[in-house]
């Protein structure tokens, strides 16, 4: 496992030599991994259960149509080649932990706390920044789901409820404030579930992900892209008779989340933070590794 690949690949000295790329399954979800693979000059073999074209890198590949279950049962001796990966992964995770100790409260604090405490709960991750944040840290061995609505952020609470209903297992859902506002009426579905449901709403007062893009330098950025709304979700929780707690720092969230897990309740944990804090943290990691 190279679970810290996104941050590791930012390092200017990051280099792994490969004799072969063996890609099992569908499209990769990390742009950093795709960028790394695009620079490698070695054979690329894609094995998938269907013959649909899958080549976003626009490079020469060998594509094989085969069922993955039988391939995954093969016992491959990879231990001798794993040492460099493990060392890079360990070093990057140490840098991440050190940076979080002094960083302004951001989404990585939330993601790490959840991954360390989730236990046997399932995890649903919303779009925009949450899915990217969780994708760049180590996740526990659990069932993870996500969904992209027609506009990217619509219907996520409803989808999470449907996932929890089908799985019949306790669930933690991590969704942004705009996604939650777009699907507020689906909070009514949570009370109908027979299992615990923790909805963690990352409230950075607007479209925080746009802080990562060059458009943030535009004079109309705040009005048309960030779109601050100034709302919280306390009244919404009361309307739908859900337990509620607001957290403004790492300690408050860790305590609230652990209490929610132990109580097996249906509740909203609203986490407030500056809109630019997650972007600043990623930039800090880039400077540290760059």
What does this structure look like?
The protein is α/β, with parallel strands linked by helices. It folds into two domains: 5-90, TPP-binding domain (Rossmann fold, 3-Layer(aba) Sandwich); 103-289, Thiamin diphosphate (ThDP)-binding fold, Pyr/PP domains (Rossmann fold, 3-Layer(aba) Sandwich). It has 13 helices and nine strands. It has helices at 5-8, 31-38, 68-72, 79-102, 107-117, 129-135, 156-167, 177-182, 187-190, 221-226, 234-239, 250-263, 277-289; strands spanning 21-24, 44-48, 62-65, 122-125, 144-145, 171-176, 197-203, 243-247, 266-272. A six-stranded parallel β-sheet has the order 5-4-6-7-9-8, sandwiched between helices. Strands 1-2-3 form a three-stranded parallel β-sheet, with no helix packed on it. Helix 12 links the parallel strand 8 and strand 9.
């Amino acid at each position: 496992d190279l679970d810290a690949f996104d941050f590791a690949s930012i390092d200017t000295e990051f280099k792994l030599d490969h004799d072969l790329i063996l890609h099992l399954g569908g499209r990769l979800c990390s742009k950093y991994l795709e960028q790394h693979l695009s620079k490698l000059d070695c054979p690329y073999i894609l094995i998938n259960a269907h013959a649909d074209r899958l080549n976003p890198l626009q490079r020469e590949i060998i594509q094989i149509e085969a069922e993955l279950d039988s391939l995954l049962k093969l016992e491959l001796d990879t231990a001798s080649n794993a040492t460099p990966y493990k060392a890079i992964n360990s070093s990057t995770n140490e840098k991440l932990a050190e940076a979080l100790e002094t960083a302004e409260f951001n989404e990585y604090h939330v993601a790490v706390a959840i991954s360390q405490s989730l236990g046997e709960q399932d995890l649903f991750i919303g779009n925009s920044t949450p899915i990217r944040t969780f994708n760049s840290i180590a996740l526990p061995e659990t069932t993870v789901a996500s969904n992209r609505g027609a506009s990217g952020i619509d219907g996520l609470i409803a989808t999470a409820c449907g996932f929890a209903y089908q799985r019949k297992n306790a669930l933690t859902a991590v969704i942004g404030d705009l996604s939650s506002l777009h699907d507020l009426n689906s909070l009514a579905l949570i009370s109908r579930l027979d299992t615990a449901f923790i909805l963690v709403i990352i409230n950075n007062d607007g479209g925080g992900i746009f802080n990562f893009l060059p458009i943030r330098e535009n004079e109309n950025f705040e009005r048309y892209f960030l779109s601050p709304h100034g709302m919280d979700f306390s009244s919404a929780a009361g309307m739908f008779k859900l337990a509620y707690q607001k957290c403004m720092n790492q300690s408050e969230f860790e305590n609230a989340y652990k209490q929610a897990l132990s109580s097996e309740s249906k509740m909203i944990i609203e986490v407030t933070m500056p809109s630019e804090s997650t972007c600043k943290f990623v930039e800090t990691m880039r400077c540290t590794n760059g």
